[in-house]
Amino acid sequence: MAVPKRKTTPSRSGKRRSHIKFSTKNIVEDKKSGEYRLSHHIDRKTGMYNGRQILDPKD
Asked: How many CB atoms lie within 10 A of CB 42?
């Protein structure tokens, strides 16, 4: 069984994990209602997407 000869240093493990991070969400302000929403998603309050009515508006 393979066993490491020396302890892995924090900088070495940090280099290995350099690509592991949280990605930022693409939040935009809706032009009509002024609410914040994710881009390319339906506005749940009004039911609009890309200028068209997709869902019935929430009461």
From this structure: 15
> What contacts 39, CB < 8 A, 6 or more positions away?
26, 27, 28
Q: Is pLDDT above 80 for 59? A: no
Q: Are 47 and 55 in contact (CB under 8 A)?
A: yes
Cβ neighbours of residue 36 closer than 8 Å, sequence gap 6 or more? 27, 28, 29, 30
pLDDT at 58 over 80: no
- What is the C-alpha to C-alpha distance for residues 39 and 36, in angstroms, rounded to an integer? 9
Six-digit token pair at 31?
């032009």
Residue pointed to by tokens 């929430």: 58
